[in-house]
Amino acid sequence: MMAKCSVAPSVEPMFQTFNGLQHLAETRRFKAWFLDQFGVLHDGKQPYPGAISTLEKLATTGAKMVIISNSSRRASTTIEKLKNLGFDPSLFVGAITSGELTHQYLQRRDNAWFAALGRSCIHMTWSDRGAISLEGLGLQVIENAEEADFILAHGTEALGLPSGLVRPMSLDGLEKILEHCAAKKIPMVVANPDFVTVEARALSIMPGTLAAKYEKLGGEVKWMGKPDK
């Protein structure tokens, strides 16, 4: 009896390999591009080699580019930073940042969780990087956990003061404040869920580290940004 011979049907590969962003752009398959910034376009201090020219070439294909970032800063500040690093702002349709989302939710309070927050907050922010303004949010910054309604974590370098100034503080110092807040069972809003970020050749501690610590202490955390819990 003659054996039957069968030929397996060809199967499209599940994944495709590209030699780089430029190669992918040349396919013109995608009309919209969502791009992270830190560790993708720049290292916090300068653009990566070829990043600017690649985006400029991508723009010639008609692609629409949007920055998505876990930066605790607002969208307009993010675009301004990219401009200062040498990127043409007109390359981008806009930016979506966790800091912008946090600001909008605190301002609108049309979400049940945010609507239930009070107006007095302990503000953990930046010092060397530049403190983040709470203008327009109607918040009262206080230092005492006994009087706080919630914690707002924008940074890991300083504690915001009622005067609008900041007091530089170590990570250990901020974590001690979290211990007092956890005992009071007040919630935290973290405006940057990253644990670390790239900065030149080093890694810097981000607010997500404080949020993870607070959860371990039993505190409730509202994580803003990607991936949103």
UniProtKB/TrEMBL annotation:
GO molecular function annotations of the record: phosphatase activity
Residues passing through the membrane, by range: none
InterPro entries named in the record: HAD-like_sf, HAD-SF_hydro_IIA, HAD-SF_hydro_IIA_hyp3, HAD_sf
GO CC terms of this entry: chloroplast
Pfam families referenced in this protein's UniProt entry, alphabetically: Hydrolase_6 (PF13344)
Protein name: Uncharacterized protein
Protein's organism: Gossypium raimondii
